[in-house]
Amino acid sequence: MTARAIRLGPRSVAALALITLIGVAAFGWPLLAGSASGLAHSQDAPWLFAALLPLLLAVVVATIADTGLGAKAVAMLGVLAAAGAALRPLGAGTAGIEPMFFLMVLSGRVLGPGFGFVLGSLSMFASALLTGGVGPWMPFQMLAMGWVSMGAGLLPERLRGRAELAVLALYGAVASFCYGTIMNLQGWPYIGSLASGISFVPGDPLSENVTRFAAYCLATSLGWDLPRAAVTSVATLLLGPAVLKALRRATRRAAFEAPVEFKDADTA
């Protein structure tokens, strides 16, 4: 069985479920907003950010209560978050080239969904500080990247070898594409009347807004989402074996799940 730096227990599952529900509501409620709501994500983003940070802490605290979380896991989290933050500026998002995605997918795969969610969120937070990308979109990016990495940790553990790489490459492509689509929900209400055929119209029937949203995605982000998916898949296939081996070796040596025992020094 794959070693996990953070195993999910009842409390951590509840915390992750709560974060996910808040995230789904934050991304999706514009589709159900009334025509007089005066909706703008720039108004609710600070509140989401204020809620997200304590909930991320709650995942860690709940995990400590469930199974324990040692200094080794915290160190691993810090190293991988720093690596992810450093990788993001390499592509600077140009044409969807974002190399941090494949590292988040592989890390979530090896270290589990709980570790993956916290890692993805913290990596996006750190990269935003590093690149000056702090804005109303940041808490949404943190949630979306957390989901990407968490999903990789939920893939079947028994997969190994070429089958594992193929599944991870496919998952990376789908997750990268879904990331862009989900993030479009955050920016879509901003465009207002700039493009009436694809803009968000509060109070319109859900089917009409969904049609406009699909057109918005095709017109604005498809050229970014497809390259991101391709880069993530190719990087996973080419670099995946080495990265997975390194992560698994580090996890075994760290012995996250080994019980810690303290013994008196032999004075004989």
UniProtKB/TrEMBL annotation:
Tree of life domain: Bacteria
Claim: Ribosomal protein is one of the keywords in the record: no
Gene3D superfamilies the record matches: 1.10.1760.20
Keyword terms of this UniProt record: Membrane, Transmembrane, Transmembrane helix
Regions crossing the membrane: 12-33, 45-65, 71-90, 110-131, 163-182, 229-247
Listed name of the protein: ECF transporter S component
Species: Streptomyces luteireticuli
